[in-house]
Amino acid sequence: MKISFSTEDECFRQEVAGWLADHLCGEFEPLRFRGGPGDEHMFPEERKAWERTLAAGGWTCVGWAPEHGGRGLSISQQVIFHEEYARAGGPGRMGHIGEGLAGPTIAAFGNAEQQRKFLPGIVNGSEFWCQGYSEPGAGSDLANVKTRAVLDQASGTWRINGQKVWTSLAHESDWCFVIARTEPGSVGHHGLSFLLVPMAQTNITVRPIEQLTGTSEFNEVFFDDAETDASNIVGLPGEGWKIAMALLGFERGVSTLGQQMQFQNELNEIIAIAKANGAARDPILRQRLADAWGGLRIMRYNSLRMLSGAQDGALRKDAMIYKLFWSSWHANLGKLAMDVLGAEAELIEAAPYQLNRLQSLYLFTRSDTIYGGSNEIQRNIIAERALGMPKEPRVRA
C-alpha cells in the first residue's frame, strides 16, 4: 500500500489544482461543493456543461486506457485527481455512473463495436447513464430480479418489461444499463443478462421519488415493452450476474478517494461550526469529532490498500468491507452534525422551507446504510464471500 507520493506526483497535483482554480470560477462558481449526494437535483444542466468543460481539458476518464479515450494515469495520479477535485469543491459529477461504472464494464466485457459506440460519449461528456439494478422486490438481493427481456428475432430487438427503483438521475440520463432475466423459468443469479437501453423512448416511464429532504434525485423506472437493439447486450445471454458483480468491483475504484474528500469537506464544516458555537468544548462531542476524523483516516488507508491490486472489477476481500464501513461512518456523521448544531438543527427559518446543508446531510444519510446494499446484506457478503462462513439459509416463495 502506497501512502506517499513522488515528486512527479506532487507536480501533477499542482497541475490539477491549478486547472480547477482556473475553471471553477465565473459561470461555474455557483457549482462549487454542490450536486453531491442529497443535492444531486441541483444545477443539472450547468453540471452537464461542466462535464463538457472537463472533457475539453482532458479531465474525464483519466484512468481509462488511451485506446478507450482516457489518459491512462497511474493509480497514484488518479487518487490525486479525485482528491484535488473534491478539495476544490468540484461539483457532483453528472457523468459518474458512465465514467465509473458503465464505461469500465463495457471496456472490460463489451465487444469492439460496443466500445466504439458507447465509450466516446462518456469521455466527451455528451451522454449520461443511470443504473437499472434495484427493483421493488430485489434491492439488496439482486439475484431476485424480475424484470424480463425477450429477444424479438423479427425486429432484431430486446423487448423489456419490468420496474426498476431508486434509479439516480434517470430523468437526466440518455442510457441505462439494465439487469434483466432473459431465460424463462430461471431463478437466482442464473439466466440474467446485461442490457444497454436508450432512455428516450415512449415505452419507458420515469417517476420521481420524493425523499425526506424534499428533493427527487431518485426515480422509479417502468419498462413497458421498452426496446433496445439486439446488439446492445454486453457479454452473452446468461452472463449478466458475472458482469453485474464485476461492475460492483469497479464501483469501489479510485473515485472512492474523491468520495472521502467530500466527507472531509463535510467534517471540516462541522468542526468549524463546533468551534464557533462552543460545541467543541463539550468533551463528549469533542471525542466524537476525533472519532470521525480517525474513522476517515482508516477509510482512506483501506481504500489505498484495496487499490493496490488489479483494477479488473474483481471484488477483493478487503474491498468487501468498504460499503459497510463508509455508510455507517457517514450516517453517524449526520447525527454528529445535528448534535453540534444543537437547537438550531430543529429550526427552519421560514416558508418556503429550505434545509441548510447539514440538515440535508442528516436526512440523506438515513439512507446510506440501505441503498447500494443494506448493512445486513453487506455483513452476509463479508461473512460468506470474504470469510468463507456457511451461507445464511434462504427461504424463497
UniProtKB/TrEMBL annotation:
Superkingdom of the organism of origin: Bacteria
Q: Which UniProt keywords apply?
A: FAD, Flavoprotein, Oxidoreductase
Listed cofactors? FAD
What InterPro entries does the annotation carry? Acyl-CoA_Oxase/DH_mid-dom (IPR006091), Acyl-CoA_Oxase/DH_mid-dom_sf (IPR046373), AcylCo_DH-like_C (IPR036250), AcylCo_DH/oxidase_C (IPR009075), AcylCoA_DH/ox_N (IPR013786), AcylCoA_DH/ox_N_sf (IPR037069), AcylCoA_DH/oxidase_NM_dom_sf (IPR009100), Mycobact_Acyl-CoA_DH (IPR052161)
| Keyword Ubl conjugation in record | no
Limits of the Acyl-CoA dehydrogenase/oxidase C-terminal domain: 238-386
Q: Transport as a keyword?
A: no
Q: Which GO terms describe its molecular function?
A: flavin adenine dinucleotide binding; oxidoreductase activity, acting on the CH-CH group of donors
Task: State the Pfam families in the record.
Answer: Acyl-CoA_dh_1, Acyl-CoA_dh_M, Acyl-CoA_dh_N
Query: Which part of the chain is the Acyl-CoA oxidase/dehydrogenase middle domain?
Result: 130-225
Q: Where is the Acyl-CoA dehydrogenase/oxidase N-terminal domain?
A: 8-125
Q: Name one GO cellular component term.
A: plasma membrane
What is the similarity comment for this entry?
Belongs to the acyl-CoA dehydrogenase family.
Protein name per the record: Acyl-CoA dehydrogenase
